[in-house]
């Protein structure tokens, strides 16, 4: 638990799920810089927050917790970000009804007087969301972005300029920077290019011929990433009906390939990203004949899935949390998979060789087999005894 001091008071903040061993904070210098600017200084008047305030991409709720008295709308692609926001509001005594929590798939507010943008890692997600928010922006809207210097590039500024209006940046403070964008009466407002759709080639193993839909923000949204391609080339054999969990499903191509290989299977697609689950559903619907059994859920890993209810878990775990490299998500996914698997059920994992997932899997399952490997990736199989 860490405390963020802002012009609106001190907030006790944590990421979600809260882990006392986690050394990563729920905010950074970019969040602090934005909040200081909003409060004003000798050189800059405070920002008028009495109108409709929208906060896009607030990662763990630090911004909206500080600004809760102004009843902001939070828009995020992250289910974990929403849960962190709820928990941080509660631990700071803020009324949970003081703000609205929306996902990137929800209809945005019709009018936006102040738009605060925490620049996301994905430029595509920023592009998509600026397009979706643009109709609610008017000439008087205050638009301010924030991010660490390494997150803000010329291409970032061009997006703001093209979709909203003239854009400039602040000086850097503690390796953070602000973006100031003035809405134009006649911005280009080009058509949102997302989602993208493409068909996998014959080198995609069990995924060959599948039509993939990627909404903005999906990892490797413009092509099939090499780790998933390797996984598709080595998916578990068998055609028996089963209950299959595509854990951290991304665009759903792995679960869809499994569904096509096992026509009677029931596949559950789960991801913490709203964009990912929307992509997975679109991919599945475009490829699996009508009558296929599937569920699509935005959630925290295996939370809410009954124990001993799944025959096969397919998993390509992330090893980044925003800009931080961490195996915390993978560890939680592996433990959750063991919980939901039936005795004799299998977890199949693809990952970079250097991550050493086999050590964790042997500790959890008591066994781990290397199914396939190349110089970069490894596919592992663990069985629940």
In words, what does this structure look like?
The chain is of the alpha/beta class and 385 residues long. It is 26% helix and 28% strand. It has 10 helices and 20 strands. It has helices at residues 29-39, 62-66, 79-91, 123-133, 154-163, 226-232, 253-261, 274-287, 328-340, 357-365, and strands at 2-6, 9-13, 53-56, 73-76, 100-103, 112-118, 137-148, 167-169, 176-181, 196-199, 211-214, 243-247, 266-271, 293-298, 310-315, 320-321, 324-325, 341-352, 369-373, 377-383. Strands 5-4-3-6-7-9-8 form a 7-stranded mixed sheet, with helices on both faces. A 7-stranded mixed sheet has the order 14-13-12-15-18-20-19, with helices on both faces. It has a two-stranded antiparallel ribbon with strand order 1-2. Helix 4 packs parallel to helix 5 (154-163) and helix 7 (253-261) packs parallel to helix 8 (274-287). The longest helix has 14 residues, at 274-287. The two termini are 37 Å apart.
